[in-house]
From TrEMBL:
<protein>
    <recommendedName>
        <fullName>DUF2288 domain-containing protein</fullName>
    </recommendedName>
</protein>
<dbReference type="Pfam" id="PF10052">
    <property type="entry name" value="DUF2288"/>
</dbReference>
<dbReference type="InterPro" id="IPR018741">
    <property type="entry name" value="DUF2288"/>
</dbReference>
Length: 100
């Protein structure tokens, strides 16, 4: 049974961050990249409520993953790159913000 307040609680944790601020989390292997087009809140709720089937489905479809070496290299070269972020202990979900 999922906590009905979980989505509301996670919504309060939604934030925006520069890559520079996320590096320590990447170094402890806690960053999970959420594909653009997937609702970061949906992912957070599924992870926080242990919805293994949904999370595994996203992993299988490569919609959520650990950052690749290419992504890390690209982000390290542009430390002001911005992301939507959501903390779901012990992870930090990140989603690239597309340039306007």
């Amino acid at each position: 049974m999922t906590n009905p307040n979980l989505r509301a609680e996670l919504t309060e944790n939604l934030d925006e961050a520069e890559w520079d601020w996320l590096i320590p989390h990447a170094q402890r292997d806690a960053v999970i990249v959420v594909a653009v087009g997937l609702d970061i809140l949906d992912v957070g709720v599924a992870i926080a409520s242990d919805n293994v089937l949904e999370v595994q489905n996203w992993i299988d479809e490569a919609l959520i993953a650990k950052p690749s070496l290419e992504q890390l290299g690209e982000w390290n070269s542009d430390r002001t790159k911005r992301f939507n972020t959501l903390i779901v202990q012990p992870f930090v979900l990140v989603q690239e913000k597309l340039a306007a």
